[in-house]
UniProtKB/TrEMBL annotation:
Organism: Azotobacter bryophylli
Protein name: Pyocin activator PrtN family protein
Pfam short name (any one): PyocinActivator
InterPro entries, alphabetized: Tscrpt_reg_PrtN
Length: 89
């Protein structure tokens, strides 16, 4: 399946997804400020951008970056699962 295609459908073709929406959909345990803090600390590898350089501009994530993040998280989980299953065999 193509993660980006599914995200485009979920977000009705929007390319820039607000931090608020990403938290509501994928990081329900975090508020937007905490998500941004974890990104700045390097704990979550998800590029946050502004639609323009103004401090008042909303912050969000490009759909490509969100798709890449989700796919990377899945790949890490699959790798971990395979390693665990090899140890048990």
């Amino acid at each position: 399946m193509n993660t980006k295609f599914l995200l485009l459908a979920q977000y009705h073709g929007q390319l820039f997804i607000s931090l608020e929406q990403i938290c509501a959909d994928y990081f329900t345990h975090l508020c937007p400020a905490m998500l941004e803090r974890k990104v700045l600390e390097g704990k979550i590898r998800l590029p946050i951008t502004r639609i323009e350089p103004s401090n008042k501009a909303p912050r969000g994530v490009h759909i490509d970056d969100l798709a890449n993040y989700i796919d990377a998280q899945r790949a890490a989980a699959v790798k971990e699962c395979e390693q665990l299953n090899r140890r048990r065999a």
